[in-house]
């Protein structure tokens, strides 16, 4: 019995130390994974923002080009203004301009938004997209769209925030599962050691 008690006292500190080391390693792994996920999230968010802005601008410019082709060919100013008003109802569009096939301005609807002023005031260049206006296979003009960068960023941040919340919830769930599994392992180990103890013989 004396030998068993001595061995038990010697093994308990070792087990406690191993437990602390394993908990420390687990905590470090969780922190490292969390930091890596945060960096990956920011990188993917920036890439998504650039791609989304480009695709959105191209899509809106192509749509505007198709809408304005007929009225521009017929020089229907009323229809042109109605179509442009429809285009600018989109909160992401700041202004629209029309040009003929030689590049001469037909009508500009973005007088309140100087492109030069946008370059001078803002750290980032404005989002400008130009699309050919094609009618019956011939280029009859061009349409220029100026997009609102702040509105796109606001939309992007809302999406980015929801993705960040989802990532945080996944990390929290992973940490809870790791804690539960760790406690279960120690509980099973303690029960196993208790059942393996030799019974005393009287």
TrEMBL record:
- One Pfam family cited in the UniProt record for this chain: SMP_2
The opening ranks of the lineage are:
Bacteria, Pseudomonadati, Pseudomonadota, Gammaproteobacteria, Alteromonadales
The protein's name is: Membrane protein
Instruction: Give the family, as the similarity comment puts it.
Output: Belongs to the Smp family.
**GO cellular component terms given for this protein:** plasma membrane
**Spans through the membrane:** 21-40, 164-186
Q: Which domain of life is it from?
A: Bacteria
Quote the InterPro entries the UniProt record gives.
Answer: Uncharacterised_Smp (IPR019305)
Record's subcellular location: Cell membrane
Q: What is its main location?
A: membrane
What gene does this protein come from? smp
Which keywords does this Swiss-Prot/TrEMBL entry list?
Cell membrane, Membrane, Transmembrane, Transmembrane helix
